[in-house]
Design a protein that fits this description.
131 residues, four-stranded parallel sheet, 4 strands
Length: 131
């Protein structure tokens, strides 16, 4: 599989994502946010870390990066995207994921278990999981 990992200012998990993909035998490339070519991937990863300072609405800034236009075009053609941490926020802000991200009620960091469920096993990311 060919994987492009996009680096935004402040990202710090981009090299982790790159190394994991490489270690699994995938052709992996780091793509800088000012680039205009995703280099023909099968999957694009938008990692987190502290993209744009780790603030809510980092995607509002990221959408001005040239590579985001390419990410949106890739997604509209059915390309696979994985947004981790701030990468998820960027995908949401760009309109590639439904919904809105909101500040928590206390406006303080909260560390607690969050339980999630698999909504569908009919995706490349969840096909091996049971509902």
């Amino acid at each position: 599989m060919r994987i492009s990992v996009v680096t935004f200012p402040g990202s710090n998990c981009d090299h982790d994502a790159y190394r994991v993909c490489q270690s699994r035998g995938h052709q992996t490339k780091l793509i800088w946010h000012k680039d205009t070519n995703l280099e023909n991937p099968d999957l694009v990863i938008l990692p987190g870390g502290f993209s744009y300072g780790d603030y809510l609405r980092c995607g509002a800034l990221a959408r001005f990066s040239p590579i985001v236009k390419e990410v949106i075009a890739f997604a509209r053609k059915g390309g696979l995207l994985l947004g981790i941490c701030n990468g998820f926020q960027i995908l949401t802000e760009c309109g590639l994921l439904p919904g809105t991200l909101l500040m928590n009620a206390s406006l303080h960091f909260i560390c607690q278990h969050q339980f999630v469920r698999v909504e569908t096993a009919a995706s490349p990311f969840t096909r091996h999981w049971q509902r």
